[in-house]
Amino acid sequence: MNNGYREIFSLKDKVAVVTGGASHLGAAMSNALRSFGAKVILLSRNEQGLKDFVNRNSGTGNNGLDYYVCDVTREDDIHGVVEKILAKHGRVDILVNNAFSGKREKWEELTKTSWDEAIENCLTLYYLTIKAVSPAMLKAGRGSIINMASLWSMLAPDQRVYLDLNNNAPLHYAVSKGGVLQMTRYLAALWAEKGIRVNAISPGWFPKKKGPERPDYMREITGRIPMNRIGHPDDLAGVAIFLASEASSYITGQNIVIDGGYSIW
């Protein structure tokens, strides 16, 4: 086997910024990027969550981890942190836009204030982080931006699945994630000749809660998935490494769906 094929997946000496990098899905991607050699810098408003993540991973050596407490919905905050990262590391090679916060209002309860907050905490948030990081990437002539979208950026949720749990995916979530896909395509076309690749990942069913205590809910979900199981955060690891590395050097503007086949029927 040509050893060069192994090397194209290497992230050695790369600097990766992951927003929401200690969260349910973000933690798996952060560890994956680090395991392939990247210096991973986590951003979050939750300082305790960041500290806990670093402490949990100290057994495997945390020299590949760094973090900043940052409200990525605030333009001044994200620009200030990116300046610190560039001053310390001199570069940003990879940006994973993963942070998200939002409420689950039903349609009849949704107010304009909640709508505006949801768009701000997803679509606008991604715009701000890309706006802060892209000048350094453009100057270097290289970079990989990975935007976390969602199955619901492409499909309408089947409302029957949620039973009586009231944890339905809300309209503003689907709309903002749909906007993420369009922003991904737009920026991919804008920067295709400048060395920056922009792609998206759309996770399917990766529920963090409502597992063993609600087997009926799990049956509703898995019964609609050809692979007959929910997603595990580590299912995102390989795709994150692939999109961050030179293994995907000719891929931009794409959306990789990780859903166990849910969207194929």
Describe this structure in words.
The chain has 265 residues and is of the alpha/beta class. It has 8 helices and 7 strands, in the order H-E-H-E-H-E-H-E-H-E-H-E-H-H-E. It has a single domain, classed as Rossmann fold. A 7-stranded parallel beta sheet has the order 3-2-1-4-5-6-7, sandwiched between helices. 38% of the residues are buried. The mean pLDDT is 93.
Question: What would a concise description of this structure say?
Answer:
With 265 residues, the protein is of the alpha/beta class.
Mean pLDDT: 93
Give the amount of beta strand, in percent: 5-15%
Global shape: globular
Low-confidence stretches: none
Instruction: Summarize the amount of helix as a percent range.
Output: 25-40%
Annotation keywords:
single chain, 265 residues, alpha/beta, Rossmann fold, seven-stranded parallel sheet, 8 helices, 40% helix, globular
Topology:
Elements: H1 4-7, E1 15-19, H2 26-35, E2 39-44, H3 47-56, E3 65-69, H4 75-89, E4 94-97, H5 112-140, E5 143-148, H6 171-191, E6 196-203, H7 215-222, H8 237-244, E7 255-258
Parallel strand pairs: 1-2, 1-4, 2-3, 4-5, 5-6, 6-7
